[in-house]
Amino acid sequence: MHKIEASKLLKKVMSDHFIAFSDKSKKVAWCTSVGPAELLRSFGFEVYFPENHGALLGTSRLSTEFIPIASTVGYSSEICSYLTSDIGSYLSKNTPLTKNFGLDGVPKPDLLVYNTNQCREVQDWLLFYAKEFNCPIVGIQSPRHLDEVKKSDIDNVVAQMKAMIPVCEQVSENKFDLDKFKETLKLSKEATLLWKQSLETAKNIPAPISFFDSTIHMGPIVVLRGTEIAKTYYETLLKELNTYVDQKSGIIENEQTRIYWEGMPIWGKLRMTSELFASKNAAVVASTYCNSWIFDDFDENEPFESSALAYSTIFINMSEPVKFVRMKKLIEDYKINGIVFHDSKTCFNNSNSRFGLPQRLKDETGVEVLTIEGDLCDLRFFSEAQSVTKIETFIEQML
Ligand code: SF4
After folding, report:
1. What does the alpha-carbon distance between residue 123 and residue 234 come to, in Å, rounded to a whole number?
2. What distance in angstroms lies between residue 349's CA and the mean position of ligand 1's atoms?
3. Span 274-323, pLDDT tens digits
């Protein structure tokens, strides 16, 4: 058993990322978590990710205070609780970025950029800020829920990416530089492959990293992809994890069963859920959530086409039959004994238990399945006592 030492470096990397926004001379683009960050960086934008802020509000449990404030301006408390937490935080003029990193608020955007490959909510979310800041907004309307990504889909997304260029040029006051875009994409690919390898160390028994750790260590691949910093970070993390693999050291003391967590984390209960599984000797080793930032298809020689392909094939954007195949592969590759589906009340986009998938997976693979109800940020939708009992019983029946 070990603690991941790279966590110290992670803290510094994330801290530096936020503190950089105190330099007001740089242009800032806000981008959705699976938006075209590499293209934006190639124009020299500092890139800020509001979903990351939403997760921070969830982890610090400030969401509970902020969600009702978003409701007062018409955002239902049953829609994406990242969105409602973030807008509530903005309206309250209160953000943990002040206490944690000394910022006077969220960084003011010069440009807002979304991609609906994950959900339509992100567009509505950024539209709020477009009005608030009187700020230009551009985006990609991705073809959704695909069985496969066809050439026509790629052409469609590429055309939308290219249409952003004049706006990016105007706002950043920099001309588009194809070489810079290629270079950024290459760095992003290198980091994403290191992230992939880091996650895949959990195929080993015992697993040197758990889903819960990965939700923290994924920070740089979300907010810093396309930078040397992210690449260096994942080199460090991977090296450390490989040492544990060699030493057969697990992230939990006595791994007896292996779980795949499907869906989003419950940010405000991350530690509780992590300790609960560990106390039952259950290692949570796989997820599609953390895998969402693996972009194998990036190719700097075809930067537009390969970005369009990579960003369109993310798990959340695929059809249910494709999701089924990918989940089945995770079960096999990670030697999974049971799957916990988190049915997240305010994100149906990332909840895969509502159309019979758990039952079909169980029938096909024989792996035990459990669905728990909760939410990414809104703890009113999470009954802790009930969920703990369900999880404990579920694990005990597998041992
Ligand atoms: S995928 Fe879900 S959690 Fe993420 S922004 Fe969209 S609705 Fe919110």
Report:
1. 30
2. 7
3. 999 999 999 999 999 999 999 999 999 999 999 999 999 999 999 999 99
Span from the CA of 79 to the centroid of ligand 1 (angstroms): 9
Question: What is the atom index within ligand 1 of the atom nearest the CA of 118?
Answer: 1
Report CA(233)–ligand 1 centroid distance (Å). Answer: 26
CA–CA dist 287, 265 (Å, integer): 10
What is the rounded distance in angstroms from the CA atom of residue 191 to the CA atom of residue 118?
Answer: 21
Residue 80 Cα to ligand 1 middle (Å):
6
Q: Which of 52, 81, 82, 85 to mutate to test the pocket of ligand 1 (most atoms within 8 A of CB)?
A: 82
Q: Which atom of ligand 1 is nearest to the CA of 125?
A: 5
Counting atoms of ligand 1 from 1, which one is nearest the CA of 82?
Answer: 8
What is the rounded distance in angstroms from the CA atom of residue 227 to the CA atom of residue 42?
10
Q: Where are the domains of the chain?
A: 1-399
- pTM of the predicted model as reported, rounded to 2 decimal places: 0.96
Most informative mutation of 76, 81, 347 for ligand 1 (most atoms within 8 A of CB)? 347
Ranges of residues in the chain with a pLDDT under 70 are: none
Query: Which protein residue has the closest C-alpha to ligand 1 atom 6?
Result: 119
Ligand 1 atom nearest 264 alpha carbon: 3
Shortest-distance atom of ligand 1 to CA 51? 5
